[in-house]
Amino acid sequence: MAEGISGSEFTLDSIRKALIRQEDVIVFSLIERARFPMNSALYNPRLDLVPGFSGPLVDFIVKETEAVQAKAGRYVNPEENPFFPDNLPPSMIPNYNYSQVLHPGGASININKAIWDMYLNQLLPLFVDAGDDGNYASTAASDLICLQALSRRIHYGKFVAEIKFRDAPNDYEPPIRAKDTDALMKLLTDERVEKMVKKRVEKKADVFGQDVNVSNNADSKRYKVDPSVVARLYDEWVIPLTKLVEVEYLIRRLD
Ligand SMILES: O=C(O)C(=O)C[C@]1(C(=O)O)C=C[C@@H](O)C=C1
C-alpha cells in the first residue's frame, strides 16, 4: 500500500503527502498520452473492431487488462477501483494483508463512471492533437495509466474523509446524522490547500513538460501538456470529484 495509509502513518499530513506524490504520476501520464494523437477510432462504439466484442476498442482493452490485474490481486488493495467491476475474476494470489483503515460502509464507493466520462469526453480533447496514427493498443494502454492515476487520486477522498472524521468526530457526527451534505462539504473544504494544489500542479506541468537540453536554455517554451490544462483538470474535476467521494464516504460513516 502506498505511503500514508498504513498503521501509525495514517495522518492528514501523510495522506496529503501521498496526494502530492500522485500529482507527479498524473502529470507524467498525461505527458505520455499526449505523444499520441486523438486516435478516435479507439473510442468509437460503432466500429466493432474486435470480433465477438461489442463496444469501443478502448473498452475491450481496459476490460481485459483489468481482468488480468484482478487475477494478480490489484483490486484487493483498497486504493484501487476498477472501471469495469462487473464479472471481474477473483484474485489468484495469496492475499496481502492490507491495513483496513476504511469504514466498511464507504469502502466500496466507486465513481469511475464519472471519471471515465470526464476523461474521454472533456479532458482528452483539451490536450491531445487531432489525428490518427493507428497506435490504438499503445494509446489505450496510456489512457488506462491516466485513468487509473486519476481514479486512485480521486478515490483517496475516502482516506482523507476517514482521517478528517477521526480527527474531529464531534464536528462531523451532527451533519452526518442530519444527512446534511452541504454542511459536510463546507466542513471538509480547505480553500487555502486547494489553491496551493492548483498552483503546484500547474508548476509541475511547466517543469516536467519542457524540452530539456544540455545548455539548460529552454529557448522556446514548448510544453508537452499545457500547464493551464492541468490546473483546470484539478480545478474543475479532480478536486470537486475528490470532495464528492469525501461527502459520499462521510454520509455512510456511521452506518
Ligand atoms: O487536503 C484535503 O484536506 C482534502 O480534502 C483534499 C482536497 C483536494 O482534493 O486536494 C479536497 C478538499 C479540500 O478543500 C482540500 C484539498
From TrEMBL:
It catalyses: chorismate = prephenate. Coiled coil: none annotated. Its EC number is 5.4.99.5. Pathway: Metabolic intermediate biosynthesis; prephenate biosynthesis; prephenate from chorismate: step 1/1. One of its GO terms (molecular function) is chorismate mutase activity. This is Chorismate mutase. One of its GO terms (cellular component) is cytoplasm. One of its GO terms (biological process) is prephenate(2-) biosynthetic process. It comes from the Eukaryota. It is found in: Cytoplasm. Residues 136-246 form the Chorismate mutase domain. PROSITE patterns: CHORISMATE_MUT_3 (PS51169). InterPro entries: Chorismate_II_sf, Chorismate_mutase_AroQ_euk, CM_AroQ_sf_eucaryotic, CM_II_prokaryot. Keywords: Amino-acid biosynthesis, Aromatic amino acid biosynthesis, Cytoplasm, Isomerase. It is an enzyme of class 5 (isomerase). It holds the Pfam family CM_2. The keyword Cytoplasm applies.
